[in-house]
Every structure is written in C-alpha cells, then in structure tokens.
Amino acid sequence: MIGIGNLRCGLHIPVYPPSPSLVFFFMPPRPSLLSSWLPKLSKLARAQEWWEYKLAPILATAYATALITAAPLSNLVPGLLFLLASLIVGATYVSLLNDFTDRAEDQAAGKPNRLASASPGLVRGLFGLCLGSGLLFGWYARRLSLLAALLYLGAWVAYTLYSLPPFRWKTRGALGLLADAAGAHLFPQLFTVTLISAWLGRPVPLPWLLLVGVWSLACGGRNIIWHQLHDEENDVRTQTPTFVVRWGALRARHLAERILFPVEVAAFGGLLWLGQAPLAWLALLVYGGLVWFRLRQWGIVPVVAAPRAKYQLWLNEYYEGLYPLAMLLTAAWPLRAVDAGLLIVHGLLFSQRLRQTALTLWAGALTLGARLRRVWRLR
C-alpha cells in the first residue's frame, strides 16, 4: 500500500558524453508492477478509511488476550501476521462490495464511487482474489480452531447480507445495524480471541470472550449509527431506507447515547479490569486530558454518535492509538529484541493516529508551559 517513488539521480560529464552503461545506470528506475499497482489497490479498497479504525483495536484485543493467558508475546508473531493478513483481505472485500452495490445510489447522490469506472474484468478479478484468499485463510483457521473459522466466516456472511441484493440488510432498519456491527466489529474481535487462544494453545476465560463480544457489538452499533447519521441527507435523497431514515435521527441518537454507549463503556471497563493492565488505565487518563484540551483550546466537542460542526467521537482515538500501545507494552514487558521489533512495527503500521495524539500532547505541553511561565512572572 506504499508506493515506491522514483530515485532521481543525475551525472554531468563536461567533456566526454557518458557511455551507454553509465546512462543506463543513472536513469531513474521504471516503476515496478508492484509499486504501480499497490497504491491503486489501496485506493480501490478504501484502506485509508479502515486501516487504523478497524485493525488497531483488533490488534489491541490480540495483545490483551496474550496478556491474560500469560503467554510470551514473541510466540505470537506469526499468528499476528496471519491475523492481520486475513483481516485485510476481509476488509478489502467489504470495501469492494460496498462500492459495487452502491454505484447507483452514489451516482444519484453525487458521491464518488471507486468502482464506477472500473472494467468488469477488473471487478471480477478483485472479487475472485478476495474470495480465494478468504477461503485459504478460513481453511487454515479451521486447522487451528473450528470456532475461529466459523467466526471468520461469520464476518464475511454478515457483510454480504448487509450489502448484496436481494438481502441488502442495509435497507432493512435494525437488521442493517446488526449486520454492520457484527461484520465489522463483533465477528472480527471474537475471531481474534479464539485464533490467539488456539495459536498459543492456551484457553481464555469465558468472561473475557463474553465481554469482548458485548463491547465490540455495542461499539459497532454506535459507530454505524454515527455513519448513518452522517450520511442521512444522501440516504434521504436516494431513498435508501437505512435505520436512521426509517426510525428518525432522534431515535437513533437515543439508541446510541442511552443504550449502546453505556453498555460499551461498562463492557470495556470489565475488559480493563480483567486485563489487569495499569498502563491502559493511565492511557485512558491521558486520553481524557486530550479530550479536555481539544474542547478548551479548539472547541472540538466529544460526541457519542451525532455529528456536528467540530467534534470527535468518544473513545475512538483511545481504541485506535493509546489502548493498543498500552496493551502491547504491557504484554511485551520486559522488552526483548522481538518485542521491541513488534513495538516498532506496530508504530509504523498505525503511525497516523499515534502522530495525531503525539502532536496534541505536544501542543498541550506547550500551552501548559506558557501558562506556568505567565503565572511565575506574576509572582
């Protein structure tokens, strides 16, 4: 997903023209097939929309599951690679399916659609690649755990039901909320717990599995309500009967704010308590400070689900940045070479959210320092 740029290098020989071999050596290399296709595939898969939002919290669950089983994190590196690859294939399938089935609606709403101009052969090839890869990942997961394989299959089925006619649960109210929350959050999170448990050969406590399920389902429901509230105007224009369009924005907000969010917070608190990771609690306090600073300094209001002019969704930044980092550090401590390498790789893979958090922390530190200096001068 990272394009390889051309290396620009020139040579000037004032008297003699360069030999053909020198000209060839210093010519900018032609882009390889891989380097030219990866950015296109990343754009078609809408990776920028789900890479950190979906994958980082799932990896946090993987780290936390390793922690509660008291297994060395170094034993999990191949399993983490398998987990990440299997989820990337599934998320790519979801993005392609969404764009493919939303073409008419996006055109009516004036929204860009990445598959609108794609050739039928390319579309068939991409779907075939995703489905074939998904079958291979599912087959290998079955060798580790039947439950893990069924949960992995469940994510694919849920999102197919959500998008693909004649099912198209997206247009069937509460069924759409359930399918999206299950496909994007519940099944992937439970798949992660069961896969890590099977990979390490260590059982996980049943309360841990149940709390992960409740938390992920409530969190997924809240986030799809936010998404539908954000797209309400377009959905009304295209006569797409989503849950928000059918039941109204007010009822959807009440569901998110009065039911789903309290359940999500309670279940997540249970996960932190079972995980026994003080660093995760400390990171939560730091996150609270970031929310307060953005509100006071820039007027960015934390919201549960309802979009507004300047807002941030409660807890999403924590789930994507500080929480995975805290669980990784806790599970890997004391750091060895493999653990340190895993920490570096995680930071590189999910650098955007961590960079945003670090910049806000730096801005907060500068603001606090300036205020302390003013107070000192007044004394």
Query: Quick one: how many beta strands?
Result: 2
Tell me the CATH topology: Farnesyl Diphosphate Synthase
Q: Which class in CATH terms?
A: Mainly Alpha
Please mark out the parts with pLDDT under 50 across 5 or more consecutive residues, or reply none: 1-36
What sequence of helices (H) and strands (E) makes up the elements? HHHHHHHHHHHHHEEHHH
State the shape: globular
Separation, N- and C-terminal Cα atoms: 55 Å
Q: Proportion of β residues?
A: under 5%
Subcellular location: Membrane
Organism: Hymenobacter lutimineralis
Transmembrane segments: 80-100, 121-140, 146-165, 177-200, 206-225, 259-287
Protein name: UbiA family prenyltransferase
List the keywords.
mainly alpha; 16 helices; 379 residues; Farnesyl Diphosphate Synthase
Topology:
Layout: H1 20-26, H2 33-44, H3 47-68, H4 77-101, H5 103-109, H6 120-144, H7 146-163, H8 174-200, H9 206-230, H10 232-237, H11 243-247, H12 249-275, H13 278-298, E1 301-303, E2 311-313, H14 316-332, H15 337-349, H16 351-378
Parallel strand pairs: 1-2
Helix pairs in contact: 3-4, 3-8, 3-14, 4-6, 4-7, 4-8, 6-7, 7-8, 8-9, 9-12, 13-14, 14-15
